[in-house]
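Supplementary Text 2. Reproducibility record for the structural model of the 186-residue chain.

All settings were left at their defaults, and a single model was retained for analysis rather than an ensemble. We include the record here because the model underlies the residue-level annotations in Supplementary Table 4.
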Amino acid sequence: MKFHKTPLEGAYVIELTKFEDHRGFLARFFCERTFAQAGLETRFVQINNSTSVRRGTVRGMHWQAPPHGEVKVIRALRGSIFNVCIDLRKGSPTFGEWFGTELDDTNRLMMYTPKGFAHGCLSLTDNIEILYMTSAFYAPAAERGLRPDDPRVGIAWPIPITEISDKDRAWPDLDPALHAMAVEDA
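Retained model, structure tokens:
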């Protein structure tokens, strides 16, 4: 695996190392030793599977408040997504900034999103399927979010958002004082 730094400290794009022959290839999705050597989280307690039927479907931007903060490692198994993380760590020089990249079933890239970051994705094709590992159990009372179209954050989604849940549409815009406090213990 190769860990490529993003402009947001602690967030990485992960490139799988493929071992190929005439039958196909093998690649590690996760290796505790390799993640530890890179200084990344090695304990994951859930592996989640998500699908979206239509191109233009957004899911996010979500995180869990302390002490339930979670690291996420995201990979597209089918189709293509634009995967985004937003730095919400109190005192971070990149607070409120976002990074996004395309993850798909051809490039097989993954994104490592650390604690204190919001995460979301937009389906670029119909019938996408993603798999993601989390380092903390889902805690409904700790669930937080902000609108994917928040003008303060200004995510440059590569295609229009055409499908969004009522819940994701209802999240507030980023209020630096309120949201920075929500993840100050990340």
